[in-house]
Amino acid sequence: MATIFRICILLFIAAFFVACETDNTPRPSGYPKINYPTSDGKIVYNDADCPYTFVLPDYYKIDKNVTFFNKAPEDPCWMNLICSDLNATIYFSYKQLQENITVQKMIEDAYKLTYKHSSRADFIEPQEIENQYGVKGLIYFVGGDAASNFQFFVTDTTTNFVRGALYFNSAPNADSLKPVIQYMVNDIEGMLETWQWK
């Protein structure tokens, strides 16, 4: 009986010293594997109903069956560009400028909608754009855990105004989404470089 007791104590002491051994080796950061989509070609968007054209990689789906507060939008040029491989959507809204819908009012609305994210954003950085076709606009980089990390608008200042916003169908987490956001931003910037008004 005493021998069994001594063996148990020795096993307990040995287990104590083995269990307290720690490994202080730093571990590399781990990220989930992301399967980025690959393009086999381009989509040239040139709908007769819309006063603009642009080019996108062919892994996007153009969805014109959209609703705005459960109603069909007032213009057929509202659409969503869906990248299902990355679980993301670029939401487009279009307005034809008129006497009561001025370019200044639309720019102010775009500003307000972007800065609604300021409570969760680390920063909001606007940047003016102008492409080779004379299309002008503004893009907003929104840092941090905001719901939309990239927003933009383009206009011809007299007739047409398009606003876009990138959203992911997941909880906002800037750290884990950073490489995917950058991938999508590159696509959007490429699209805006090809944008033309008809």
Number of helices, where a helix is a run of at least 4 consecutive DSSP H or I residues: 3
Question: What's the end-to-end separation, in Å?
Answer: 96 Å
User: Based on the structure given, which CATH architecture is correct?
Assistant: 3-Layer(aba) Sandwich
Shape: elongated
How is the biggest beta sheet arranged? 7 strands, antiparallel
User: Oligomeric state of the chains?
Assistant: single chain
How many domains? The number is: 1
Q: In the CATH scheme, what's the topology name?
A: Protein Transport Mog1p, Chain A
Strand numbers in spatial order across the main sheet: 3-4-5-9-8-7-6
Strand content: 25-35%
Number of strands: 10
Essential attributes:
alpha+beta; 10 strands; 7-stranded antiparallel β-sheet
Q: Mind sketching the topology for me?
A:
Layout: H1 2-19, E1 42-45, E2 52-57, E3 61-63, E4 79-83, E5 88-96, H2 103-115, E6 121-130, E7 136-144, E8 150-155, E9 160-168, H3 174-194, E10 196-197
Antiparallel strand pairs: 1-2, 2-10, 3-4, 4-5, 5-9, 6-7, 7-8, 8-9
Structure description:
- With 198 residues, the chain is of the alpha+beta class.
- The protein has one domain: Protein Transport Mog1p, Chain A (3-Layer(aba) Sandwich).
- The chain contains three helices and ten strands, in the order αβββββαββββαβ.
- It has helices at residues 2-19, 103-115, 174-194, and strands at residues 42-45, 52-57, 61-63, 79-83, 88-96, 121-130, 136-144, 150-155, 160-168, 196-197.
- Strand 6 (121-130) and strand 7 (136-144) form a beta hairpin.
- The chain is elongated, with a radius of gyration of 26 Å.
